[in-house]
Design brief:
With 360 residues, this protein is mainly α. It contains 6 helices and no strands.
Length: 360
């Protein structure tokens, strides 16, 4: 309305002035006042129109500036909220990281204990398997001997006992013969040494021949002794195998129970090894996550440490923008005050009946 009114006033200003001056019946004071008001109106219109383009640009710039300011406020609030959330998240991460070393240490201790138990279990299992392997031949022989039942085994046992008795008798005879021969050798050796010492045996040929004979006898006796020792060992082994049927069956059951226990132990050990491997993998995963968390925490903390300064900078920029907006509003207010001045001049002119009638 103001713009339309101003334009109407501008278009009729000069005509109105002429008409007012033509009113002969008006008082001179009223004429002078009307002229002054018209001059005031013309000056206001000229000033207003010269600044209108700047005013329109100012209105647009103010609207754009206000929009940017509002967007800046929203962005600052979002940044502040993100910062606050980041602080809370960082605190939670810090608590998790602080608890991790103790948890990792407990996990490592559990793994170390598991590794120790595995090593001990493996050593026990290997010792048992070694002992079992040493008894396998005896077990197989016992199984074969008892395969056809107790009667058949008793027959085999009787034959083995008879063979053992024969071999033992031969051994005893051989041992007796060896003992006699050894005693004769010892006596001859003692007499030979005594004769040499007493000087009754001085002939070099006799001494050499006797010594050679004694040496040969000693060698033969040593060979016989070794044979007898081997025979004694074989007899002991054979005697150990001459066991009653019930004893053999007990040993077979014991072997098979030991084997079953060792097989079960091997399965348990394999399961524990698998459990240990899974625990180790989990520990390594948690340790890697902890180390990655430390790096992530450090990076996040660095960002958050920089954020307060950035937020303050944003606040400062918004405060400057708010001041500029207020300055822009003040300049626009000056223009609007000019419009008000025109309105005042127009109202003053309308107080003159002749001017009002002409304008109407």
């Amino acid at each position: 309305m103001i713009v339309v009114t101003v334009c109407a006033i501008a278009a009729g200003a000069w005509a109105t002035k002429t008409n007012v001056l033509d009113v002969k019946t008006a008082k001179e004071a009223e004429k002078a006042e009307a002229v002054a008001n018209l001059d005031k109106l013309e000056a206001g219109v000229a000033t207003l129109e010269s600044n209108r383009a700047a005013y329109d640009e100012g209105v647009k710039a103010l609207a754009d500036g206000q929009a940017q300011y509002d967007a800046g406020v929203a962005q600052l609030e979002a940044s502040q909220a993100a910062y606050d959330a980041g602080v809370a998240k960082l605190a939670t991460a810090k608590a998790t990281l602080d608890a991790a070393p103790a948890q990792l240490a407990a996990g490592k201790a559990k793994l170390d204990a598991g590794a120790k138990a595995l090593a001990e279990g493996k050593a026990t299992l290997e010792a048992g398997q070694k002992e079992l392997a040493a008894n396998t031949a005896t077990y197989q022989a016992g199984k074969a001997a008892t395969a056809n039942g107790q009667a058949a085994y008793e027959a085999i046992l009787a034959a083995g006992q008879a063979k053992y008795d024969t071999n033992k008798a031969a051994y005893d005879a051989g041992l007796a013969a060896y003992t006699t021969a050894k005693a004769e050798y010892d006596a001859k050796l003692a007499a030979f040494e005594a004769g040499k010492k007493a000087g009754t045996i001085t002939d070099a040929t006799v001494i050499a021949t006797t010594q050679a004979t004694l040496d040969a006898t000693a060698t033969a006796l040593a060979t016989k002794k070794a044979t007898l020792d081997a025979t004694a060992t074989a007899l002991a082994t054979a005697k150990a195998q001459l066991l009653p049927y019930a004893t053999v069956m007990g040993l077979i059951a014991k072997y098979e129970a030991s084997k079953a226990a060792l097989d079960a132990g091997a399965a348990q050990l394999a399961a524990k090894q698998k459990e240990y491997d899974a625990g180790l993998a989990e520990y390594n995963t948690k340790k890697a996550a902890y180390e990655a968390g430390l790096k992530e925490y450090a990076a996040g903390k660095a960002q958050l440490d920089a954020a307060p300064a950035q937020l303050e900078e944003g606040k400062t920029k918004l405060e400057d923008a708010a001041k500029q907006i207020e300055e822009g509003k003040a300049k626009l207010a000056e223009f609007e005050a000019g419009e008000a001045q025109i309105e005042a001049g127009y109202a003053t002119l309308l107080e003159n009946p002749d001017v009002k009638a002409k304008v109407d």
